[in-house]
Each structure stands twice: as C-alpha cells, then as structure tokens.
Specification:
With about 350 residues, this protein is mostly helical. The protein is built from 16 helices and two strands. A two-stranded antiparallel sheet has the order 1-2. The model is unreliable at about 1-5 (pLDDT under 50).
Length: about 350
C-alpha cells in the first residue's frame, strides 16, 4: 500500500518515531550549529522560523527498523541506531553538496549556499558526531555494552567505505577509462555500504544469529547498488521537479552507469563526441541534450534499468535465504520494490 506521496506504508510507518528521535539528538547540538542542522533537515527556514518541508525518505532508518522487526527484535530498542544511520546519511549530503557545488536540495538552497563552505563543513562534521552520540543511547535502551561497541565498529567501517566511494566518484569525473567494474566498486562503497550497515545493524541488534546478520548485510548491499543505479537514471532523465536537484549529473561529468556504458560501447563519431564532451570542464546547454541523445541511441538507459533489476533480485535472494516467515520479509520487499521503481 502506498501513500499519496508515493512512499509505501513500510517507509512511512516509523518516520514520525525516527523524526522524534532525531529532534532529541539534534537539540543536543550547540545552538550555533543546531540551526543549520535543523534547516538542512527541513524543520526550520534560514531565519530560524519553524517550518515543515520534505527532509528525505528516511530509507536507511526504515531499513534498520524493518530488519530488526524481521528478525524478531524490539524496534524501540534500536531507534538510536536508526537515527544514527540517518544522521550519517545527512552528514554525507551536506558534504556532497559542497563537493558537487549543488545550489539546491529539496527545492531550496543547500547549507553551503546559505552559510558558506567552511561553516557547512562544520555542520556536516557536527552531524557526523551526533550519529555516534546517538549510538551511545543504545545503552539506555538495554543494549549490552559489547553490542554497542560492535555497532560503533560496524558504522565506522561503513563510513570509511562511504568516504572512499565519494573519493572515487569525484576522481572518476576527470577520467575517461572507467569500466563497469570500476563503477560497481564505487557504488558499493558510496551508496551500498550505508544501506548494508542499516540492514545489518537492525538485524544484529535484534538477533543473536550471526548468519542472519550476514544475509541482511548482503541484502542491503545488493539493494544499495540497485538504488544507486536508479539514482543514476534519475540524475540524467529524471525531472528536476521530482528529484529536487538543481545540477544534472551530466553537467558535472559524473561517471554514472549510463555514461560509463556509453563510453565503453560507443564507436566512431558517437565515441569521439562523448569523449570530447566529457573532456570539457563542464557540459551545458545543447551539449547535455547531445549526451542524452547518444546515450538513448546506445540503449544506456535500458541497460541501467536491467542491471538495477538484477541487483534488486539478488537482494531479494539474500532476504529469502534467511528463511524467515514471508510476513516478516514482506515490509522489506515492499521497500525494496519502491526503491527500484521510484521516480524521485
């Protein structure tokens, strides 16, 4: 069942509880930074006045909670962990907007655009730190110290992968020799690592079965790659009104999957044109249209859709390997399906 916003009920059922947890955690931040974080989350405008705007889909926190529920755990116990992965995600968004020079997110100015790059870095760092303070709240929920320590390690390793993936994403902008394998390695780190720790943390905190945790990690990892490929498709062919992004992946010369496929599979004049365009400092106006035309002719969009579906089904295979009751798997499958078919 989907809501009027297109999100399935599995993605919205726990949003209010996660939001309450996030409010508590961000309220503990020093006031000079708190207002920036509250702005980024969509709770205030740039003048500090309360507002209620779109602040993301809460996918990672939802996956954490649903994974805990699936293994028979108590979701109220793992709420701090769900908040932690959401905070890490938002830390990465604040920094990504700086690195990508994105002027808008969710149809309003990005943090760096309003407060400058230096203060946006500080705000992102504060968001990162709050994620670990959130994990420390697991003790109040009755989670054992050993499990809290392991959770910190799991999230830290995921953050290292995320940083490496972001490094590769930026590095690839200046290279034309990127292979599909290179791209998949980048996507596994930049995006899939955080989804994988979201699902594995939920399962780990809700269960004592290490084999189950491994399956949930792989489920999140495969789903994360599918999610990134869908993002790539939207970054080229998605409507700005739907995505809320002001800068096209093409204009930034991002080596997203359709572009990597195009560079690998084009020949003759099409190859020469793509190489010439992606050798420029930026791609604008009619050149963006030309890139799309070439990618459409090569079938890059269909290739990307097919590969996303392959990873989606790989994710479902990992989930089914848990041999949990179908009713326990259903909310996770519904969420996975939404991530594959979304248009924003």
């Amino acid at each position: 069942m989907s809501t009027k916003f297109g999100l399935p009920e599995s993605c919205t059922s726990y949003q209010s509880a996660v939001r309450v947890e996030l409010h508590k955690i961000i309220e503990s931040c020093p006031s000079v930074l708190r207002k920036i974080l509250q702005y980024h989350m969509g709770w205030q405008d740039e003048h500090g006045h309360s507002c209620s705007r779109e602040s993301g889909k809460f996918i990672r926190s939802t996956l954490c909670l649903l994974s805990c529920q699936a293994v028979g755990g108590d979701m109220s116990q793992v709420m701090p962990a769900a908040a932690a992965v959401e905070l890490i995600h938002n830390f990465s968004l604040i920094h990504d907007d700086i690195e990508d020079a994105s002027d808008e997110r969710h149809h309003r100015p990005t943090v760096w655009k309003l407060w400058g790059q230096s203060q946006a870095i500080n705000a992102g760092d504060a968001m990162f730190t709050l994620a670990y303070l959130a994990l420390s709240k697991l003790k109040e929920k009755g989670i054992a110290d050993e499990k809290i320590a392991s959770s910190v390690k799991m999230l830290s390793l995921a953050c290292l992968e995320l940083c490496e993936g972001q490094y590769l994403d930026l590095d690839y902008e200046n290279r034309l020799d990127i292979t599909i394998e290179d791209y998949l390695d980048m996507a596994a780190k930049k995006t899939a690592a955080l989804l994988a720790v979201s699902t594995s943390l939920g399962a780990y905190l809700g269960s004592e079965d290490s084999e189950l945790v491994d399956f949930f990690h792989l489920f999140g990892e495969e789903l994360g790659i599918a999610y990134q490929i869908c993002d790539d498709i939207l970054g080229i062919w998605g409507m700005e009104e739907s995505t809320g992004k002001s800068v096209s992946d093409i204009s930034q010369r991002k080596k997203t999957l359709p572009v990597v496929y195009g560079l690998q599979n084009s020949e003759g004049k099409e190859k020469e044109k793509l190489v010439k365009l992606y050798s420029q400092k930026s791609i604008e106006g009619e050149d963006i249209t030309e890139v799309k035309k070439i990618l459409d002719h090569l079938g890059a969009r269909d290739y990307a859709k097919d590969l996303a579906e392959q990873y989606y089904y790989k994710a479902l295979t990992q989930l089914e390997a848990t041999q949990l009751d179908t009713s326990r798997q259903a909310p996770l499958k519904e969420t996975a399906c939404f991530l594959l078919k979304r248009n924003f």
